[in-house]
Amino acid sequence: MNPFSPIRKVYQGIADRRQMFRLFDRHAQRPNRDHVDAGSLYSGEWFGVGRVEHDYMLEILPPLWMRGEMFALRELLTDSITSVFYTLRIDGKTRYFHAYCDLNVARSPAEMRDAIVERESWPVKAMTREERLEHIWSATHDEYRGYAGDRWLPEHHGKRTVLCYGGRQGAMLKLLDELTDDEIAAKLPVHLRHLPLAVAA
Questions:
Q1: Reduced to 3 states, what is the DSSP secondary structure of residue 172?
Q2: Lowest mean pLDDT, pick from 25-29, 91-95, 103-107
């Protein structure tokens, strides 16, 4: 079961090389890693990278294919999902992106490209609640995030958790999806805290 929207931005800003490699496998701690289809977790995720990171990935191995402003990595994450890198002109600037696309879906790379351009062309800088939560998950160190296990109610097993500061109660694990607006703001970097809340299309 895929709890995410089909195409989603998972990190705000431009990921450097260290961040990029962390984001490549941001679900590494998932429970039942060997028995759960990773494709539904990764397919549709995208984030911005720098030109240096984009070019580095192009030079690692010959790409599986190159089409205009995009190329796909030869190493597939799953049977049909692989990294696709984009060089896109948005609002007069050349920008670079990474996305996971399902190559079994014929137009997946093109639909991803169109979604990135649409999202990055918003006239006002804003973030949806989902983007805020995905950024928190992406930016949180592995030691401070995880998945609900046996200590949680059965209906929460496998859901993502993050460690929050609870005032007098000290630090506590909370379900990522149940963070309050104040908890979300506290976990976001200062430059993202006061962005207006956008409603997903």
A1: strand
A2: 25-29
